[in-house]
């Protein structure tokens, strides 16, 4: 155990010396939705673009499902999702987990404002 | 044990992607961070980029590293458009070659036409300033696709006599359509 700790300390020192590259913002274009969530007593929603685009092309959500490419311009409620609109087109227990898995989407830190988080360098879709 | 996990997380961040636990967005005390896929697990397997979120998304798609669905409704027509468009013919920077094919692999025509760009070639006034402010190309580039620091990925066609950067193709590709 002591040897493992010594090795770990050595490795940390080594990484500190060579200069660890700063981690990439994995949250690049994560969308935080908190217009209603916290007022309703749940965590803000985090929508990760990177996770979804591995599985679906942009056109599925932004053409077929009608999500506009601007944060704040898609005003929908849980009732829409439960009835199969917006996220509910897939999050129905068939293609993806059903809306009763509240915590998997409502996973954000409390107090985060609605917006896009990440390394975007333009006003981009985060400007609303 | 603590030291080992500290090393593990150091190594993970050295490889590139911050963990959900530490990304500043997810609640580290919530149940989701234990269940959701970690970005590093998914993205480290894809063709690497040197900018943005460090993934060459078009290459990942073309090489079959990912196979995202193009539709979820059976009656949706999947439209791929092949034509290239040359833009910025009169500027000082190299000419922009906009490839429709790579864009329509991901997007449908209606995502850009006509509210961002008129379908008729030459009818849209482009502005780098607008793009930097998140309009036109900047709706996606810099947010979900490679950022605007990568000038020569778009400004990729050198003018006659222009100093050619190593990354620039010299010839105008066959099939490219100049605006009127």
At the third CATH level, what is the topology name of the largest domain in chain B?
Cytochrome C3
Q: If classified by CATH, what would the architecture of the largest domain in chain B be?
A: Alpha-Beta Complex
User: Most extensive interface: pair and counts?
Assistant: A-B, 62 and 64 residues
Quote the beta fraction of chain B.
Answer: 5-15%
Instruction: Kindly name the structural category of chain A.
Output: alpha+beta
Poorly predicted runs of 5 or more residues of chain B: 8-14, 166-171
As laid out across the biggest beta sheet of chain A, the strand order is 2-1-3
Q: Helical segment tally of chain A?
A: 5
Count of alpha/pi helices of chain B: 7
What percent of the residues of chain A sit in helical stretches (DSSP H or I)?
A: 25-40%
Secondary structure layout:
The complex is a heterodimer of chains A (128) and B (180).
Chain A: H1 2-18, E1 30-33, E2 45-48, H2 49-55, H3 58-64, H4 78-82, H5 102-105, E3 115-117
Antiparallel strand pairs in A: 1-2, 1-3
Chain B: H1 2-14, H2 32-35, H3 39-43, H4 57-62, E1 84-87, E2 95-99, H5 100-106, H6 128-132, H7 151-154, E3 155-157, E4 176-177
Parallel strand pairs in B: 1-4
Antiparallel strand pairs in B: 1-2, 2-3
Task: Write a brief caption for the model.
Chain A has 128 residues and is an alpha+beta fold. Chain A has helices at residues 2-18, 49-55, 58-64, 78-82, 102-105, and strands at 30-33, 45-48, 115-117. Chain A has a 3-stranded antiparallel sheet with strand order 2-1-3.
How would you characterize the overall build of this protein?
The complex is a heterodimer of chains A (128) and B (180). Chain A is an alpha+beta fold. Chain A has one domain: Alpha-Beta Complex (Cytochrome C3). Chain A contains five helices and three strands. Chain A has helices at 2-18, 49-55, 58-64, 78-82, 102-105, and strands at residues 30-33, 45-48, 115-117. Chain A has a three-stranded antiparallel β-sheet. The longest helix of chain A is centred in the N-terminal third of the chain and has 17 residues, at 2-18. The radius of gyration of chain A is 19 Å and the shape is globular. Chain B is of the alpha+beta class and 180 residues long. Chain B has two domains: 2-45, no CATH class; 84-177, Cytochrome C3 (Alpha-Beta Complex), CATH 3.90.10.10. Helix content of chain B is 24%, strand content 8%. Chain B contains seven helices and four strands; from the N terminus they run H-H-H-H-E-E-H-H-H-E-E. Chain B has helices at 2-14, 32-35, 39-43, 57-62, 100-106, 128-132, 151-154; strands at 84-87, 95-99, 155-157, 176-177. Chain B has a four-stranded mixed β-sheet. In chain B, strand 1 and strand 2 (95-99) form a beta hairpin. The longest helix of chain B is centred in the first third of the chain and has 13 residues, at 2-14. Chain B starts with a helix and ends with a strand.
């Amino acid at each position: 155990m002591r040897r493992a700790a010594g090795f770990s300390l050595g490795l940390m020192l080594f990484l500190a010396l060579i200069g660890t590259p700063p981690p990439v913002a994995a949250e690049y274009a994560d969308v935080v939705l908190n217009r209603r969530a916290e007022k309703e007593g749940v965590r803000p929603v985090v929508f990760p673009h990177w996770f979804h685009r591995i599985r679906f092309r942009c056109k599925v959500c932004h053409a077929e499902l009608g999500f506009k490419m601007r944060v704040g311009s898609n005003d929908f409620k849980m009732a829409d999702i439960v009835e199969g609109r917006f996220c509910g087109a897939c999050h129905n227990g068939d293609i993806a987990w059903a809306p009763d898995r509240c915590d998997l989407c409502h996973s954000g830190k409390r107090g985060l404002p609605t917006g896009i988080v990440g390394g975007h360098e333009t006003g981009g879709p985060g400007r609303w | 044990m603590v030291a080992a996990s500290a090393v593990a997380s150091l190594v993970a961040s050295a490889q590139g992607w911050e963990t959900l636990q530490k990304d500043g967005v997810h609640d580290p005390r919530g149940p989701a961070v234990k269940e959701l896929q970690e970005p590093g697990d998914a993205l480290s397997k894809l063709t690497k980029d040197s900018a943005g979120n460090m993934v060459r998304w078009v290459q990942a798609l073309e090489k079959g590293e990912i196979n995202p669905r193009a539709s979820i409704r059976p009656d949706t027509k999947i439209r791929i458009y092949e034509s290239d468009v040359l833009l910025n013919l009169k500027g000082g920077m190299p000419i922009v070659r906009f490839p429709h094919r790579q864009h329509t692999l991901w997007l449908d025509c209606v995502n850009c036409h006509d509210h961002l760009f008129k379908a008729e070639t030459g009818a849209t006034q482009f502005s780098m300033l607008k793009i930097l402010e998140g309009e036109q190309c900047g709706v996606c580039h810099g947010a979900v696709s490679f950022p605007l620091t990568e000038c020569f990925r778009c400004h990729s066609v050198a003018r006659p006599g222009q100093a050619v950067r190593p990354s620039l193709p010299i010839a105008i590709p066959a099939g490219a359509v100049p605006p009127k």
